[in-house]
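Hey all, quick one. A colleague (J.T.) asked me to put the manganese (II) ion job into the tracker so the inputs and the structure tokens live in one place instead of scattered across chat threads. No bug as far as I know, just bookkeeping. Sequence used:
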Amino acid sequence: NRKFHPDDTIITLPGGQTIGGGGLTLIAGPCSVESEEQICGIARRVKAAGAQFLRGGAFKPRTSPYAFQGLKAEGLELLKEAKKESGLPIVTEIMSANHIDLFLENGVDIIQVGARNMQNFELLKELGKIKKPILLKRGLSSTIEELLMSAEYIMAGGNDQVILCERGIRTYETYTRNTLDISAVPILKKLSHLPVLVDPSHAGGIAWLVEPLALAAVAAGADGLIIEVHNNPAKALSDGAQSLTPDQFDKVAEHLRSAAKAF
Ligand code: PEP
Ligand code: MN
């Protein structure tokens, strides 16, 4: 709460990367880790484009149990490999408190709590006991207040390194996958000292919408973006429709940096 903590929280990683407190953080990578060649290739490209972090899902929360569920522990190993090769710290989603040790052993730098687990309070309490940054995504149908209370669950346990993420919410609109609640950005910045990121990929669900939504997020005061990038979106095992190619990401990253300077 800003009342008790007027200054912005700045998350600083052991490698010196920071999130919050000015500057634009770019986290990019595929929805799912699919192979060593895929994740290492994408890591090289997003790093060259200026991303400071690599994302990639190993444990995937899919709507259908018959859809690709992620490479799980092998996916974490591949992320570790991509981190070693590229030097980029890694961000990946956790779905169970049983996996915390596995994530720490594999050198995960930022642990993502996905929209579907935003109110998994037992998971949040366990993540409150560790000293790792947590990227907490807003639930599909959660209010801003509920997102902030979930952040409190983590911080109440002693882990104050929480990053908030607006990723779109469910509304009656069907053109987009979700509706990006752009007003959440200034509201969260006003109420909370925590860094606020926006995920334009899961918000819009369509690759061409990523750039305009990301630019709107920068204009609204977001501390950074998390963007899905895939070497071959048409063949992606998850979320291909919203994934940018590395070439497209090059341009988007450049435009976002110019926008960040202007605002
Ligand atoms: C993801 O980041 O791949 C993801 C599943 O996001 P969300 O939890 O926002 O749906
Ligand atoms: Mn995804």
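Adding what we noticed when we looked at it: The longest strand covers residues 25-29. The pocket of manganese (II) ion (ligand 2) is lined by residues 31, 202, 228, 238-239 (CB under 6 Å).
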